[in-house]
Amino acid sequence: MNPAPLNKKIAKMIIHQLGSSGTPPRFGVEHFSVGLDIFLKIIEDEYLKDILKLNLSSFKMITGNYGGGKTHFLLMIRNLAWKNGYVTSYAQLGPTECPFDRLELVYKNIVLNIAPPSKDKPEAAQNNSGIDLLLKRISKKGVRNLLSKLSRLESSSFANACKAAIDNLRADDEEGFYEVIQWLKGEEVSKDLRLRYRISERIDRSNAFRMLRSLVQFINAMGYSGLILLFDEAERGMSISSSRDKRRALDNLRQLVDECGNSRLPGAMFFYAIPDENLLLEGSGGVYEALKQRLRSNFTTINPLGVKINLEELGPEPAEFLTRLGKKLKTIFEIAYDCELNDEYLTPSMKNLIETALELQALDISYRRIFVVGIIEAFQRLKQEQKLITTQEAQEILRSSVRMLSEKERKEIESEEY
């Protein structure tokens, strides 16, 4: 995938985000992606252009440690999905606002972040999300055809809510439209409103799966290629806080995998990213064994039907990966700061940083994230001082990066405890 030309504004955003936290920005990841093209092409050819077009569905689990590129990979899939006419939703899971044991909250996160494909550049589409904006995309020509298909949705409440929203749009009733949108977003609405629009249910734990299936069916009825759901677990593990919650979350995940084997999720594909599959699957009992069995196979170039995508096993060897990544980040940095770094100093400096990053890879934080934060600090030094960064200085930079990232993770953990 050849990215569009990079402008200074986006370049500065990328450098600032990566340099301050090591996490990828929501837009622009294609400019510093390394080693993923062959796997993205398999996903595009095998799934986006083939299996999903047959109204089938699929599930993949992505694993990779802290800073190992899970979010980056999900965002690359999102861009690929938009290119192929799919609606997407990137849902960041966490123990407070979006735990996977409470699917009604996951549903709310999905509809909040749902985004149709756009002809605009990805960065221009960043505010173009939400089920209200998706509904506003319905053309006047397509309304009658769409309304005729609503009776096929599994949930009559969901179908009636969509019809009411469309009718209010056609009548230029903005207030009525957003009243119905509140229900579609999973918010509490008055009994009078539900009676008026023949909405018989609240969206809760008991019907969250049915509402998710109805959402997928609705997007299919709108004429899009399908829906790509990107679930991103909290960096340190599952979005759960107790063993009971974990069993419920695992049962939800097992049911989701099973749902992909039936015809009620036409053109839907689910990607579920977690740092360590052992955090997910360690334990005994029926739910653990059932899920282990379903997640056993590995996705590879030879076996694209495998379920698990291990990012630690994808792409080039670590030293080559960091070399290619460093060169791409150098180009972005030079665009962001309108400068030209001296290769005489940069090449050996980068070599020192790569060797040091690989020495630190035994830590919980991925060598990739440590390197990204460190190399951007190195670029700043080279821009100012125009001198070689020695091995000792590289060690100081990267160890400082490790402390910063560890402190950031500690604060995130503390903020999530309740």
Keywords:
418 residues, 6-stranded mixed beta sheet, globular, disordered C terminus, 54% helix, alpha/beta, 17 helices
Helix and strand topology:
Elements: H1 8-21, H2 37-51, E1 58-63, H3 70-83, E2 87-92, H4 103-112, E3 114-115, H5 131-136, H6 143-149, H7 156-170, H8 174-184, H9 191-196, H10 208-221, E4 227-232, H11 243-259, E5 268-274, H12 277-281, H13 286-294, E6 308-310, H14 318-337, H15 343-359, H16 367-385, H17 391-416
Parallel strand pairs: 1-5, 1-6, 2-4, 4-5
Antiparallel strand pairs: 2-3
Structure report:
By secondary structure, the protein is an alpha/beta fold. It has two domains: 35-313, no CATH class; 318-416, no CATH class. 54% of the residues lie in helices and 7% in strands. It has a six-stranded mixed β-sheet with strand order 3-2-4-5-1-6, sandwiched between helices. Helix 14 (318-337) crosses helix 15 (343-359) and helix 15 (343-359) runs antiparallel to helix 16 (367-385).
